Every structure is written in C-alpha cells, then in structure tokens.
Amino acid sequence: MAHTETNLHVVLGSGPAGTALATELARRGHPVRLVDRSGTGAATAGVDRVRGDVSTPEGAAAAIHGAGVVYHCVNVAYQLQVEVMPRVQRAVLGAVEAEGARLVVLDTLYPYGETHGEVMTEETPWRATSDKGRMRAELDEIYLTAHREERASVVLGRSADFVGPGVLNSTLGAAVFPGALTGGEVLTLGDIDLPHSYTDIRAVAAGLATLGESPHADGRVWHLPTAPARTTREVLAMIEDRVGRALKVVTLDAPRPFGPFDEVFMGAYAEMFYQHTEPQIMDSGAFEAAFRTAPVALDDTLDATLAWYRGLLAEQA
C-alpha cells in the first residue's frame, strides 16, 4: 500500500480522548489538525481546529486530506451508535485508503462481551452478544481485514472506561466527582465490590500517540496502559480520603434513569449493564512491555481529576 509522505497528524473527534490526544501530539512536536462537527472550542497551541463531518465520504476525505496519520476518536450518543458508527467507519476507512495514510482507531472493550470475570488481554475471544458489542466487533474485523489485505495500515488501541481531567460521561465522571466535592449524591452502578478497570484519559492520549508514531505496531489490537483494577468501593474510599468527607453513595442495581443518565441513555445502556455485575479487568501488559511505558497510577489520576472538577465547579459558581 502506498503511504502518504507527510507528518501531519489528523485527529477525528474532539471529545475527551480526541482533545487530549491532539494536545499530546502537539506537545510531541507534530503538526496537528483536530476535526469535529462544530470546528469550535478551546484553542490549543499547535492544534488547527477544523469543522468537518466524517460520516460522509466527501466529508471524511476533506477532513484527512494531506494526513500521514489519522486517529479515529469519533463517538456518538449511545442510542445512535449501532446506526451511525458503521457509517463513520466506511467513510473514514475509505478516505484513509485513498489518501494512503495510517489509521489509529480508539476502541472499547465491548467486543469481548461478558467475560465472567476473566482478565481481558488482547488474546481474549470476542464473544459479544449485545448489539453495540457485536457492532464494535464487526467494525474491528473490517479494520483488521483492510490491513491484512494491504488496503490500509491500521492499528487499534482499546481502552477501559475513561477517567481523568475533562471526562464527564463516564461511570467515573460527572456522576461521581461533583457530588464528592460538594457533599451531593455520588452515583454508582451494579456491584461496587467488583474490580473494575479505568483508563486515565492522559494514558489514552499518550498510548494512541505512541501507536501513531510506531508503524511496526500496525495490524493488531493493543490495550492502552491501564492501572491495575480496583473495586469501585476502593476507588470511592480513595476519593473520600482526598475530599475529607464520607460520600453519599447511591447505587443503581439495575439500569434506570438517575441524575445525568436520562431515560434515553439508560435504555440504550441497559444491554451493557453486565459491565457492572461482573468484574471488568483489563490487562495492558503487552503494550507496557512493547513500548516500555507504564500506566498512570490511580492515585495520580484521582488527584488530577479532582483538581479539574474543582476548577469546573468554580467556573460554574
């Protein structure tokens, strides 16, 4: 396959992962274009923000024009994923093939499906039974097939649930930290005594950037650096130590609307609720060994996340 001779890195999607990744790539000295549907948002030194719709072939081609490496960090609302994400993939993959760029895909643990507590590695079989899990598995097989057939150079970086500065829509996000800091309710899901992996958003960014700089890593799935799993109860205790108060914990034992999670979201999320009724343990040892790196320690993650939420609450006051 012919590769574009350019050092431009194009990030598609400006959610927490895309934004953190664009910042990290610029910090590493790469020219960066950040593309989303609005083209607006906070300015970042070294990052060119561009408006674009990568769900169409024309929009995707325009968004990645001139790129050497493309990072697919686009996501959509839960209830739209099964319909929209395959369309985005077709447009982005087609554009990457035409451009001759490499493609780095931010991926989830959904393809593995229910593991009954088995530690997830890159060798874990894909056994998803949910609609969103099967959809993700099908997309991933299409990506890897494109690589095997030498139509594009593709690599996938899988992350556990996000946590960290800028992360709102996560089970360890806006439903937890504001309440912890203000004395309000803290929402948790399922069995909080089960171990659950969380990936620091800064490690997601650094891991994807490293994959973008490492063509020899193409053609496979990598688990992005993730701290050892802790139980949700342990994580809450660590937060309590930092905020100096007992948390008012509300636990949903079944998917129903609560706080920031409305009826539409919870209806779409219900099929994924197994992630809170069995251990979710992700192992990132292969990436750590291959790239001689380590995950962000959970202590550091919680310190940085609480500091970010304090700033957010101060802005909203």
CATH topology of the largest domain: Rossmann fold
Instruction: Indicate the CATH architecture of the largest domain.
Output: 3-Layer(aba) Sandwich
Radius of gyration, whole Å? 19 Å
pLDDT < 50 stretches:
none
What count of domains describes the coordinates?
Answer: 2
Distance between the termini: 54 Å
Q: Quick check: average pLDDT?
A: 94
Main sheet: strand order: 3-2-1-4-5-6-11
The total of helices stands at 10
Total beta strand runs:
13
> How much of the residues is beta strand, in percent?
15-25%
- What top-tier CATH class of the largest domain fits best? Alpha Beta
Helix fraction bin = 25-40%
Question: How would you explain this protein's 3D organization?
Answer:
With 317 residues, the chain is of the alpha/beta class. It has 2 domains: 9-161 and 199-223, Rossmann fold (3-Layer(aba) Sandwich); 162-197 and 228-281 and 297-316, Alpha-Beta Complex (UDP-galactose 4-epimerase, domain 1), CATH 3.90.25.10. It is built from 10 helices and 13 strands. It has a 7-stranded parallel beta sheet, sandwiched between helices. Helix 1 (16-27) links the parallel strand 1 and strand 2. Helix 1 crosses helix 6. The chain starts with 8 loop residues before the first strand and ends with a helix. The mean pLDDT is 94. Pfam families: Epimerase (PF01370).
